[in-house]
Amino acid sequence: MDLTSAGIAAVDFSPFFISMKASVLATFFVFFAGVAAARWSLRLPRRISGVIDGVFTLPMVLPPTVVGFGLLLLLGAQSPVGQFLTSIGHRIVFSFSATVLAAGVVAFPMMYRTARGAFEQVDNNLISAARTLGHGEWTIFWKVYMPLAWPGVAAGTILAFARALGEFGATLMLAGNIPGRTQTMPIAVFAQVEAGHTEQALLWVIIIVIIAFAAVFLMNFLTMRKSHFRKGDDGV
Amino acid sequence: MKCMKKAKSFMTGLLTFLLFATLLSGCADVKATAATSAESSAAAISTTAASTAADTAVSSETTAAAVTEPTATPSPIPNEPVLPDTELIISAAASLTGVCGSLTDLFAKEQPQVTLTFNFGASGALQEQIENGAPADLFISAGVKQMKALTDGGFMVDDTLVDLLENEVALVIPAGSEAGITSFEDAATDKVITLALGDPDSVPAGQYAAQVFESLGITDDVSPKIVYGKDVRQILTYIENGEVDAGVIFVTDAYSSDKVTIAATAPAGSHTAVIYPAGIVKASENQAAAQIFLDFLSTPEAAAVFESYGFIMAG
Fold it and tell me: Rounded distance, CA B252 to CA B249, Å?
């Protein structure tokens, strides 16, 4: 498609909306899952903690095609889970849910690790003080941990969003290339380059770069803000 | 403190050295490993595919040779200059994946010093690669449009072009499917929830499929169900695994797998004729060897192999 003759108005912007919807949804789920997993893993005994940490970090370290293949094995038409889902009319493979799932799975380790790092920075004396004051664990989590770890958790959320937005391999394998349903911006770039529409591909590239740059800029800005009560500070 | 610093700098130096060493050796080895892995994969394809489909073709070829030529060993093509060791890179449409393995075997008997390396993909993607300078010697396309784009752009040696094969377009379903899909029109009904097609921009099978649905007037009914595959082999895999209810590929692709069945072949006149043009790329440095291979593809022996896979010889 020649952008100069057809104009921007003729471009199908559905990949942008699909990408944004999927990334926002995935980040939403990953925020709660990541924070909960980070908090939970800090309370585990040391031996199990290492294994659990490895399992949670795995999707970040594995090649996205391996993650996609694993999800396909788990949820595809040949698997028990997949066949059950088909029987109740909710095929995951080649659906928009698959886009959210794939993006979420690869973004989860980002949220988990950053949140866990932020929680580890919180001064244990403060937690102990809160406990001696009689606060329950839930109150301690929301009123002590989260406000203190907030810059790190926010940075983790943005990082997870950026990763979810950029996911390609696992999404392509699980959700497929369905224009208007699962064709995200990265998949659109791939399809346009294959078809020789390099100008349209360039449009997506520019949009993605702008969003990614904004995300990184925001993330750096948030982590610069210092919390007075993190470990190592004298409270100055 | 000092020895800590020394140990640190030593380790850094050692790691940097190891990194560079692996990079350099990787660069040197890449070409060799690529060639050997291509050879072994071509041999692997030919042993698996040849043992099933081409056994009949090869045996008929040897019996024919025994009848026409009293010599026991197959003789090379007459009046042929002896070629040095050459590697031919052939960009071929994905639907030729199985048959080219058998052809490699056959060709190796006639010209053993020529190594064939196949680069399979959707014809549109292959056309893009050649336009961007990919080192292909020959191009065999599943569609006339892609070859025409290359000839118009001056990338092909025009007088080597030949229409090699014909094929048929089919609606293919997973083997054992109980949805009762028996015609292309069924794609518009609830029997088909997801339909795998090639991307019409780059996959000829996708273009033919679009034409068929257009001629039946069901394009709008079918559009929401489409998932695009990047080539016919990917669509075949989707159908085999049951991820889609049906897909449109060539009959030859369906024959190559026993996990799928053909629900219907495209009605006559519903699409432009499926023709596989072949030709030599202008930038090729092995045009003599490429011409020999191209001529080989038109011989009766090669035709027998093609037909055993379900292709129809053009012309």
Answer: 8
Q: Which domains does chain B have, with CATH numbers?
A: 39-166+274-313 (3.40.190.10), 169-265 (3.40.190.10)
> Is A76's Cβ below 8 Å from some Cβ in B?
yes
pLDDT tens string for chain A (236 positions)? 444 555 666 678 899 999 999 999 999 999 999 999 998 998 888 888 889 999 999 999 999 999 999 999 999 888 899 888 888 888 889 999 999 999 999 999 999 999 999 998 888 888 888 889 988 888 888 888 888 898 889 999 999 999 999 999 999 999 999 988 999 999 999 988 888 888 889 999 999 999 989 988 888 887 776 544 555 545 44
Residue in B229, B230, B243 closest to A76 by CB: B243
| Token pair in block for residue A151 | 């810059």
| Tokens 């606060």 -> residue | A135
Please check whether residue A178 touches B, CB under 8 A: yes
Range(s) of the domain holding residue A105: 3-224
The rounded distance, in Å, linking the Cα atoms of B171 and B187 is 9
Per the CB < 8 A criterion, the answer to whether A56 and A41 are in contact is: yes
This prediction has a pTM of 0.73
Which of A18, A96, A189, A194 best probes binding to B when mutated, by most B CB atoms within 10 angstroms? A194
Of A77, A91, A193, the CB nearest to B241: A77
ipTM metric: 0.74
